[in-house]
């Protein structure tokens, strides 16, 4: 019996699926790592390879050094 897939083709409720859900609404590497125990940046690379556009925006969180917020924007056209 095949596993259920999420909208990006990852196994539903897997670490990659959860990371993709966070990056879909915009999250920093630190936020994903705190929530999941792993920044899962390979998810972004995989999605770029599948043709998704990843938006990277520099943000400052508190007085810490700047971080990048990643957002899975859409399929490239």
| Separation of the first and last Cα atoms | 34 Å
Main structural class? alpha+beta
Spatial order of the strands in the main sheet? 1-3-2
Strand fraction: 15-25%
Radius of gyration over alpha carbons? 13 Å
The ordered H/E elements are HEHHEE
Shape: globular
Which descriptors would you attach to this protein?
single chain; 77 residues; Arc Repressor Mutant, subunit A; 25% strand
Walk me through the topology.
Elements: H1 15-25, E1 27-28, H2 29-36, H3 41-49, E2 52-59, E3 67-75
Antiparallel strand pairs: 1-3, 2-3
Describe this structure in words.
- With about 80 residues, the chain is an alpha+beta fold.
- It has one domain (about 15-75): Orthogonal Bundle (Arc Repressor Mutant, subunit A), CATH 1.10.10.
- The chain is about 35% helix and about 25% strand.
- It contains 3 helices and 3 strands.
- It has helices at about 15-25, 30-35, 40-50, and strands at about 25-30, 50-60, 65-75.
- The protein has a 3-stranded antiparallel sheet.
- The longest helix is centred in the N-terminal third of the chain and has 11 residues, at about 15-25.
Sum this structure up briefly.
This protein is an alpha+beta fold.
């Amino acid at each position: 019996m095949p596993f259920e897939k999420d909208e990006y083709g990852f196994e539903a409720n897997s670490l990659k699926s959860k990371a993709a859900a966070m990056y879909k609404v915009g999250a920093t590497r630190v936020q994903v790592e705190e929530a999941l125990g792993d920044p899962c940046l390979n998810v972004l690379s995989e999605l770029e390879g599948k043709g998704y556009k990843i938006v990277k925006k520099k943000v400052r969180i508190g007085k810490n050094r700047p971080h990048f917020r990643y957002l899975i924007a859409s399929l490239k056209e």
